[in-house]
Design a protein that fits this description.
By secondary structure, this protein is mostly helical. The chain contains two helices and no strands. It has a domain of 58 residues. The protein starts with a helix and ends in an 11-residue tail after the last helix.
Length: 95
């Protein structure tokens, strides 16, 4: 189960990078940027690509969160399975 976390993190990083890159570009039809570095106030709302990237970012964040919880749960289950199975108490010397 832990092998999938790396791939999920790579995919989420790519989506985050694409969103960062796309949202930093000025919107088509705008002349420049304002003093904060964002698109100038003449731009009209987010484009369809920006909305799609925003949705992909949310999906990636939820996917990473779920995968981290599942990996952690399976690891904890594996570690504590001996305790739940009734492992012998004491030193094991038959005392």
């Amino acid at each position: 189960m832990g092998e999938t976390l790396g791939w999920v993190m790579i995919a989420a990083t790519i989506v985050a990078w694409a969103a960062w890159w796309f949202f930093r570009r000025p919107a088509p039809g705008t002349v420049g940027t304002d003093s904060s570095g964002g698109a100038s106030s003449g731009s009209s709302g987010p484009s369809g690509v920006q909305r799609a990237l925003a949705v992909l970012c949310v999906v990636a964040a939820v996917g990473v969160s779920i995968d981290v919880v599942l990996v952690g749960h399976s690891g904890a289950k594996s570690v504590w399975s001996d305790v739940a199975a009734g492992a012998p108490r004491g030193g094991g010397d038959g005392d």
